[in-house]
Queue: 3 jobs
Job 1
Amino acid sequence: MSQTQDLLPDTPTPLSTNPRPPPGRPAPGSRILAVVRRLLVRDTASFAHGWAGKVLVAAVLIGIPATMVLLTVIGGRYGRYAEDSWKALLMLVVLAGSYLASRRLLLTVLIGALTVAVVSWVLSPNLADTRDGDPTVLAHLDHQAGRGMLAGYHDVAVAEIDLNAAQPVRLAGIGADDTTPMEIGSMTKAMTGLVIADAVRRGEIRMDAAVSTYLPQLAGSSAGTATMHELVTHTSGYAEFGAATLRRGAWKAPLGHNFLTADSAQLTKEAKSQTVSGRGRYAYSTLGSAIAGQAVAAAAQMSYADLMRTRLFEPLGMTRTAIEDGHALVTGGRSPTGLPVQPWVMSAYAPGAAAVSTAGDLAKLATALLDGTAPGMAALEPTTATDQSNSRIGDFWQISTWQTGQSITWHGGQTGGYASYLGLDRPRHKAVIVLSDVANDASDLGSQLLAHRK
């Protein structure tokens, strides 16, 4: 160094406006980035290198879909297992695939959550754009849409009946019309109740007789001692479904597949193998409904489908109504969360949920029920208490007293991809029918339309 340079004063260092943190103390932003980098690094090179980390990864990958399944079965009589469990299955597949490809747990969870959210949004049902039919009914639907009652619907067909009006039957639909076939689910039970009451009038069956009288294959079992009256009022002690059917439903429902495929031999086995409990107490049973329908068909010496066709559908001119057994009569609907669902083609369970109909045909049924010309009118008379203080039951038909003062005779229905409602205000000679190609609760919309028509 030269003498001149040595004599020069030191140049002052300007103060920094962002002083560096003391050594060993990184900036907060750097700490966050470091954490993110560590979480995004391959787990086998970080926390999952040992067995404890591997157990944690497995617990997260299994725990997330397991928790989703648990949430779908909590609450209500059914929970939402059949509606929402497909999301847990999708999450499991995405988590497994993403983790095998990336070995990064945080990234995998983010991909899974985003995938399920996007797919759920894409599949979510939206109300159709096309409108057809009676302007008055469409105005009523617009009013209900403004109240949020059509949220979650896609195609919906409605019939309004008023025998005291100049135009007794009014039909309309959004995305559907009065000829659009839809599965009506458990409304089939109500139709079966009419045919059972008609068979009593014909002297073919007695309501106080044990069901084994007509289905001798049930003799010797506790299920066979249930009376026809107990079966049609859901007081037989039967389970809702047979054990084998429930097992099928556990894995088929999340995929949108039909699980009510038991044949006669399987139905008999399910009925005989169940533990009948709570006899005399109301407990809704599709298994009991199926047994009751098959019993009256056996007493009449014809198949259940032929029984319904010859004794109810044809006499009322319901030419577009049939029992969906052997082959599909619809293309398939959607679950409330939008999952495409196969048609419910049934065999022995048919009396519980296998009818396919239209708003136009159901308007014919409702008209005959209001004017008293339908077969089996005795089925509509309440005989037994239910689990609701304001409701009683006849032959599968529910009779409820509303806060509006109306006494409503009704039945709803759902399959995996469709929903239905038929409500009768018999004292006022009015009725409402709702059909939907989404398996939502059509009873909510139907009851609102009927309540506003006092």
Note: The two ends are 108 Å apart (CA to CA).
Job 2
Amino acid sequence: MDLRPYPNLWIFMASNLLMFGLFCFRLVLDIQLQVMPAFAWLSFLVCLGSLTGILFTGADLATKKQERFQGKVINIEGRIIHVLTTENRLKRLRINAAWARERLKADQEVEIRLTHYTKMPVSISILKDSARTETE
């Protein structure tokens, strides 16, 4: 199942760029108008946070580097799925695509690919469906 995260990454990148520009402008105005230092400090922190988001999102979009792991679906709670990897580590993933969540069931062997920095799911492959083989 291809979850197509790259359009969402572009939207996240655009919103971070907009926020960075607006708060940099706000920071310059705060300094020129000699507003309370707390407001200038808040603008600086928001600029720094959005710049960090731009860098991480830009790196994911430019490199398309992905992490891959296999595991077993343990539990599905709303949009969150819990996967026990082959290294016995529990991973929590948020899957926003309803059609992808409907196909996932507990005790399925899956392979999941994530973007490298933002950890957004790129694709989910069902390797073995344990629930179907036990009933047959």
Note: The longest strand covers residues 66-77.
Job 3
Amino acid sequence: MSTAPSECSSGTESVNRHAEELAHATNVVRGYRPNAIRPEHWAPVAQFTCQVGLDLEPVDRRRATETMRTLSQFVVWAHRQGMPLDREAIFTPDMVERYIAVACGHLAESSRATRRSDLRRFSAAVTRKAPWPPRAQRLRGDYAIVPYTPAEVARLLEVAAHQRTALQRRRLTAFLALGLGTGVYPREARSATTDDLVERHGRLCLNISGEHARLVPISPPHDTTLAEICSTDPATPILGFAAKEWDRAPLGHLLEDIDRPLDCPDLKAHRLRATWLLRHLDNRVHLNGLAQMAGVSSWKTFGHLMAYLPLIDEESLFEELTRR
């Protein structure tokens, strides 16, 4: 367990990290060599495809790799169908639909849907004349963030403790401890290591790097869980799982071997985070401080949770509002 840095990461450091990620993403696109495509099929389209990839401006290495994998297979297929290397000819609705129907039959339905969605998004971004409809505004009227109830939390912890193997127990226990104890975003959970567990003001904390760098004290009893992981397996990913750079659903793969009884609540990182937030709202933690710990810059998330806060009786409310 290490000692916390004396100062939080500066805004300049965050900007520099972002610039470095963009530079790495650009290098991934420029140097991309597909493993699943024969060199003689890739060579004629490589320059064209890489330029399309650059124009899509992936923000990090993982997205750059995913973008190029999808683009390369589509462009090679279209070129072998006799299409010219012209964006307006290749990236059309008809070509995308034909590719999904003809060339992606070996993929699972969910994978085909993802590839189709990506290609439609890419195509609309890199063409001007192709007949892509304007993107419709997303309707989020039914969107909801639902925290776990105390009974659901207890059941999740029980399920984690009774997994068949030590690795399954480690992964699920750590996943729950990070979500319920620190409210991390999914990408932060999968990158956290035991070296990120530090002490500050006599409390175990998680030092989170990235876009929303911050130091978060770990809520009990999850601090004990993470301390035990740090002690027994130092210098490792907290989740006991290292995601591949290209993996589109790393947490899904992390949890796919978990034994889930029929009465086990669904495992959702955003629900763990909401549960963490609600606990601190219920304990009347300072809102600005909680927003900082949650890595948010607006009150939108808190608004989703208001319906789950306990009511206060009128007399107590009046007393609080008239405190001197």
Note: The longest helix spans residues 11-30.
